[in-house]
Amino acid sequence: MHIAITGAAGFLGQRLVQQLIASGELRQQPITRLTLLDQVEAPLPENPGSILVMSIALDITAPGALECVLEQRPDVIYHLAAVVSSAAEADLELGMRVNFDATRALLEGCRVQELTGTRLVMASSVAAYGGELPDVLNDMTALHPENSYGAQKAMCELLINDYSRRGLIDGLVLRLPTIVIRPGRPNAAASSFASSILREPLNGEAAVCPVPTDLAMFVMSPGKVVDALLHGAEVPGEALTPFRAFMLPGITVTVAEMLEALHEAAGEPARSRVRHEPDPRIEAIVASWPARFETTKARQLGFVGDDSFKQIVDAFMSECGHKRVNA
Amino acid sequence: MHIAITGAAGFLGQRLVQQLIASGELRQQPITRLTLLDQVEAPLPENPGSILVMSIALDITAPGALECVLEQRPDVIYHLAAVVSSAAEADLELGMRVNFDATRALLEGCRVQELTGTRLVMASSVAAYGGELPDVLNDMTALHPENSYGAQKAMCELLINDYSRRGLIDGLVLRLPTIVIRPGRPNAAASSFASSILREPLNGEAAVCPVPTDLAMFVMSPGKVVDALLHGAEVPGEALTPFRAFMLPGITVTVAEMLEALHEAAGEPARSRVRHEPDPRIEAIVASWPARFETTKARQLGFVGDDSFKQIVDAFMSECGHKRVNA
After folding, report:
1. What domain range is A189 assigned to?
2. CA of A133: which chain B residue's CA is closest?
3. Can you tell me the ipTM of this complex?
4. Contacting residues for A78 by C-beta, under 8 A, at least 6 apart
5. Are residues B139 and B23 in the same domain?
6. What count of other Cβ atoms lies within 10 Å of the Cβ of residue A254?
7. Same domain membership, residue B105 and residue B202
C-alpha cells in the first residue's frame, strides 16, 4: 500500500501522515510507503516503523511535476494541496493554476499511467456553497460559489466525478466543514476566530470574538476530518455513484454554544478571556457560509462527525494536556 | 453595437443571425456589425442592410484564435460553439478542449482586452443535470452530470459566474431545454426522435418513435430559444446575481401529448406515419433527462417559453408553409 499526499506539509497533511503511521494500514493492507509532496519539504514523521517515507519538495503546477510520483503507481492519493480562499480571491491566476490546473494535471497523469484502481481523495470546502441557500442544505443543493476558491473547488469536483465515471480513476471529493479547533496561531482566514476563541483562552491567553454570539457555524474537529480522509480511502467506489462529491457530517453550533462549552471545560476565568469586538467585515463573510446540512450521503457511506461540541473541546484539551475544571 | 457569435454556422447560430438582422437592434442600440465565427465559414445572411457582417473560419481551440475578434471589442458575444454530447463522450480530450478550454480562453481574452462591459451569453444544457434528481427541479438543484458534455458545461457555468462576479466580464449562461421541432434531418442525438416524430409526418414522411408514449420531456421551440438568446443580451447584469446560470422556461410534454398535437394539426394520415419501435438504449438516455422544472429565476428575469405544444407545432408548420387540417 503506497500512499501519496499533496499538501503534506500543511496542518491536515501532517496530521493525516501521523494517523496513517499510527494505524499502519489502509484498506486492510499494510502501508509500505508514503510519498509526501509539498512546495516545501514536509517534515518526516517520527517512528515510521517499516514504512518507507519520502518527502519531496516540488511545484505541482510545473508541467510533469507529478510524473515521477505517478510512475510509482500509488494505491491511494490524497490531494490536499491548495491555495487558500483569501489568496485565491486576491490572485485569480494563482488560484486557477494551483487549485484547478494542478488537479487536472494530476487526473491526466493518472490517466496516462492508467491508475484506474487508484483511489483519489480530494478536499473541497463549504466555501463552494453560496447564493440564495435554503435554511437546511442537502446533497442536492446547488453549488453557487461566491468566491474563486469555491468556484475552483466546485470545478474540480465535476472533473474528478467525470474522470471517475469514465473509469479513469477511482475518486471522491469530501467537502470539509470549518475545522475547529485548529492548533497553532490565529491566521488571516475569516474563520480564524472560531478556533481562537477556544484555543487562546484554554492556553491562558486573550482572544477576540468579532461576530454576534447567535451566529451558527458548521464545524468538525481536526481528528474527525482526518478520520474522514482515512475512511474516504476505504469506501467502495460503487457506493459513491452517481456523484462523488458531498459534504461531511459536521455539527451545527452557535458561537454562544462554543463559548458555553469553553466555560464548562475551563471555567469563568477562561471564558472571561474572550473579548467581544464586532467586526462587520468578518461577520459578513462567515454569516454567508451555510451552517445547517442534512449530510445523508456521507452518513450512509459511514462517515462520522463529532457527537457534540463538548467532544471537540475535550479532544483538543486532551491533545494539549489540559484538564477540565469540572472533570 | 458589435455582436460576435461563436458556432455561428450551427442551426441555432444561423437562426440567431437571421433574427438579429431582422430586428436590427439589441439593447436599444442599432446593430452595426456582426462577426460570425465557426470552424467552417458561416453562411452570410441575405439582406443584412447596413450591418457589416464578417464570417471567419477559425479553430477556437488554437492559441490566440479569438484575439483578432476581441481586439475589436464586441459589445455582445454569443458563445454557442461546442462539441455535442455524443462526441464529447467519445473523446474526452476533444470535449475538454472545445467545450471547456476554448471557453476559458475566451474569458481570458476578454480579461486581457478589459471587456468588462461586454455581455457574454453562453448556452448550457439540460445534460448538465443528472444523478438522484427530485421530481421537480428548481434553480437550486445541484448539477451532477452523468456525461462529459454536461460536466464541461457545468464547469464553464462556474467559470463564467466567477469571472462575472469579479467584474472581468458581464456574463450569463442559459441552460437550454430539448429543442423541438428542429429543422432538417434526423441525426445521431438521442433526442433526435423528438423532432422526427413531428417533422417527418408533417412533411409526409414516415418516422419511428423509440420511447414509450408516457415519457415526459422538457422542450422549447427554436423560436423561443432564439428569443431567449436575444433577451439574454438585454437583462441587466445586477439582476443576474448571485448565480448567472439557470434553466430556461421550457414546457413539460409527454410523447403522447406531442403525437396528439400532431394528430390535431395534420390529422390521422400524419399521425399514422409514426411507427412505434421501442429502443431501450434511447429510452434509457432520454428518460434520465429531467422533464419538470420550476424555472423561477428565468421567469423573473423575463424569459418566456412556449405557451403550449400546439404553439410549437403551429410555429413549425407556419415556417414550413404547412396548413392545419382543422384551421
Report:
1. 179-218+250-292+306-320
2. B140
3. 0.95
4. A3, A4, A5, A6, A13, A16, A121, A122, A229
5. yes
6. 16
7. no
